[in-house]
Amino acid sequence: MRWFVTGGCGFIGRALIQSLVERGETVRVYDNLSVGTRGELAGVAPFVEVESPQSMEDSTGLELVVGDILDEPSVRSSVRGADVIVHLAANTGVGPSVENPGSDCRTNVLGTLAILESARHRGVKRVVFASSGAPLGECEPPLHERLAPRPASPYGASKLAGEGYCSAYFHSFGVETVALRFGNVYGPGSMHKGSVVAKFIRQSLSGEEWEVYGDGNQTRDFVYVADLVDAIQRAGTTPGVGGEVFQIATNAETTVNQLIAVMQQVLGEMGAPAGRVLHTATRTGDVLRNYSDTSKAREQLGWQAEHSLREGIAKTIAWFLSSPAAKAA
To answer: Whole-model pTM?
Structure first.
């Protein structure tokens, strides 16, 4: 198959591409290099940078096209011949969306629309859209696909808009869209990621305090990146799931304080220091409880998370301790 991956130089994108390349798939990455770099992509596999992309029907191996998802003519030219688009490129995080909701909207809403329009006009059969639990906002967990969305942040609103456009393009134009609501993703390669696991490891290795928003009793559903990659690939290839939304997480509710206890234990076993915990004010737009019911993904995609939290944290910390890329970040 021929896979077109937006944001492919980022954390999740590189993990996905490594898996696809190992399977012998053809992959074209479309990225503006605002977060990931050419060097980080090269660390996954050798690639060819393409300035005037031809149809992917003529491609083999791994290619990089440097471009912005808001440049629809560029996107439309680049997706020719793709079987699947995996749309990962986005502004991420609640905090940045609160600070600049306009930028969040332009990238996450108009950028997604450009991807869907390109898929429609170029005949791309399947689009996998990276969403999150944020569209559901503050609600009683477990999160599931039948809950009414009530976003608590501009980020959640922009992801909800993306899900809405995916549904519309499936029903109006026959583009087989699949929206995946990611849990809190962590794992090797996350040196630039701002989420709590990567942040705590970086702070620990640099001797800084671990900043915890609020009392640490807020809960999240932490999913290991290799499990997420498996879900993305299934969403790109499983027949009969066009127009669907899936929660992709572990179905386990973990407080930040519980996460800290696991990380402190693993760091100690590996001879690395753990940071002192510093509690600060809660953040606007953050939800108190968040974990997912993943039964729909199990039933329709044949997917479930395989890594326990402790196993995933151990692999992640080991990567940070041994990786030159992590130490240079």
So the answer is: 0.95
